[in-house]
Amino acid sequence: MTISTRSSGEIMSNEESWEEEDPDALMRAQTKHDWMTEPRFKKIFNEIEDGLQGVLGKGPFEWVDRRVFDAVFDRSTLLSIHKLMEKGEIDTVNYPIARGKEAHVFHASSINGPVAVKIFHTTNAVFKGLAKYIDGDPRFEGLSGRHRQLVNIWVKKEFRNLRRLRKHGIRVPRPISYHKNVLIMDLIGDSEASPRLRDVIIDEPYEVFLDLLEMVAVSWQKANLVHADLSEYNILWNEGEPWLIDVGQGVTHQHPHAEEFLVRDVTRLVKWINKQGFEADLADSMLRVLDEPVPELPELPGGD
Q1: The whole model's pTM is what?
Q2: Catalytic annotation on 199?
Q3: Which of 152, 159, 278, 290 is 20 to 30 A away from residue 139, measured at CA?
Q4: At 23, is the pLDDT very low, low, confident or very high (cuts 50, 70, 90)?
Q5: Catalytic residue among 70, 74, 91, 229
Q6: CA–CA dist 97, 116 (Å, integer)
Q7: At a CB cut-off of 8 Å and minimum separation 6, what does 197 contact?
């Protein structure tokens, strides 16, 4: 199976991602990071500054935009990065490879090679409405509360969902470590991030559709989990296979909206394949996911 890439989707472009500079915003950002000069934090920041050259706009990467640093790296985030660097989980944080409402994902390096560092935003507006994916999940019963706590729970939830899915052989990034609002995972791709499904042309898309349906079915029947936000935007294409990402909102069967989320996931897959010129039926696809036997896929490393 061969592909041609429409858009690499690997590095965010300044023109597409950011608006014209706002002098007032830049002044606020300066004030926002004044804490770095305080003696108790200055030592910590000095210890990790070399590892942040890319996101500080001082590294060799062409994308560089200091506003990314100002928008993402608040005090809590930098302290989490410091903790993970102390543990040896990451060496450098280089440049952004994806941006969403809830998080930025950065290309980073570690002693074992490239990794992806997902940094969840800590502003109150970001996670508004996402509590519905935590409330009702028995694994996190009674834990939702203040915003920062909610963000930390969300990261823990994504980490656990990744491990659960890999235990059942579903292709998702291997989770490595997390601390508060920062999650480290394997980078899907050799040295650069793989493109999204929506950004590639595939020779045999119906086979990919069936593969995706099987992963959804295994997730539902074996892992007791539904992705809850599956679409061509959060499926990566790597070495001829689809990989699922962004599983933080995934919920178990016990969640009151689990079946609703499952129907939505399958509906989006059906819409994707039908845009390729096929006529997949939603009812038949749901039967495949809910009732037809699923294989016992071999566990992937990092599953639990």
Answers
A1: 0.82
A2: no
A3: 290
A4: very low
A5: 229
A6: 9
A7: 208, 232, 233, 235, 236, 237, 242, 272
Query: Residue 206: helix, strand or coil by DSSP?
Result: helix
pLDDT single digits (tens) 169-185: 999 999 999 999 999 99
The one catalytic residue among 65, 137, 186, 246: 246
Active site residue 246: yes
Are 177 and 89 spatial neighbours (Cβ–Cβ below 8 Å)?
yes
pLDDT bracket for residue 209 (50, 70, 90): very high
Tell me the CA distances in angstroms from 180 to 25, 249, 277, 279, 301, one per residue in order: 26, 17, 44, 44, 23
| Burial category of 74 from C-beta neighbours within 10 Å (exposed 0-12, middle 13-18, buried 19 and up) | middle
The domains found in the chain, sorted by start residue, are 7-186 (3.30.200.20), 197-290 (1.10.510.10)
- Report how far Cα 221 is from the mean position of its chain's Cα atoms: 23
